[in-house]
Amino acid sequence: MKNIFLLFVILLSFLLCPFFSFAQIENTPNYKRMIDSLVQFKVDSTLKNQKNREKSTPKIPTFQYRFVGDGFTMQGNINRILLSARTEISLNTKKVQFETNPRFTFGEQNTNLAERDFFVDLNTSIFHQKKVYLFGLGAYEFSNLRGILERILAGGGLGWHIIQKNNFQLSISNAVFFETTNFIRRTDFSTWRNSTRLKLKYSLWENRLNFLHYAFYQPSLFDASNIRWNFNIVIEMPIYQGLNFRFSLDNFYESFVVDNRKNNDLTTRFGFSWGNKRGR
């Protein structure tokens, strides 16, 4: 019986010993400093991860603007001049973004008017900083080059930011819109179109060289032969405080054109841009 009692006392002492040891360690300054260090490390790690996420997500200024002037001239057997002016303006809130991009193009060939084109649009994006966002669009244009007296379109759709970083952005969008076109020398038409756009922006060498690519494909929903597509490349090199040297290549196709006009237009331009908004 004494042996059993002695064994019970030894076992109880063995079980309670860590508890008293832990209580003693807990009251020591070294233990408190260790706990404080662990808590501070956890806080620092959380703040660091938050800052890294903020750095990887591009911050969009509330008001963005950009002015672009480009073109080219050629003298010789063919005297050719082409000038283009464009303004890009966007107003951003946390949930809604408004954008407009009016542009005017003027061109002559052998002193004859070739281009006198005007385009203006208004785009509204809802939840534009989310992965998936909604947008509405409207546009008005006329074009001497393509014999368009007036074109009006309006619609809306969904967009998806596939990748959204400071130096690399990739997005795709799809919309449905109604379009009506009045030609100078052709039967007018109205149609519903589907529009798919792929947009890619990226920068190299710490933003010393900036690239923008986008492609549109816009078939009519009721006439398979009535399609439009556009592919564009822009390369910009910063010069000084928002001023950039700019090169652009634009390839545009439209199946319905007036007589004596080609379906495809390929244009290259050189010029400058200035503002706090990256190229569109």
Name the shape in a single word.
globular
Helix percentage: 10-25%
CATH class of the largest domain: Mainly Beta
Uncertain runs: 18-26
Itemize the secondary structure elements and their pairings.
Elements: H1 2-26, H2 29-56, E1 63-74, E2 80-92, E3 96-100, E4 103-109, E5 112-126, E6 132-143, E7 148-164, E8 168-183, E9 189-204, E10 209-219, E11 227-240, E12 243-254, E13 264-275
Antiparallel strand pairs: 1-2, 1-13, 2-3, 2-4, 3-5, 4-5, 5-6, 6-7, 7-8, 8-9, 9-10, 10-11, 11-12, 12-13
Overview features:
280 residues, alpha+beta, 2 domains, 13-stranded antiparallel sheet
Write up what this structure looks like.
It is a single chain. By secondary structure, this protein is of the alpha+beta class. The chain has 2 domains: 2-55, no CATH class; 59-275, Lipocalin (Beta Barrel). The protein has 2 helices and 13 strands. Strands 1, 2, 3, 4, 5, 6, 7, 8, 9, 10, 11, 12 and 13 form a 13-stranded antiparallel β-sheet that branches.
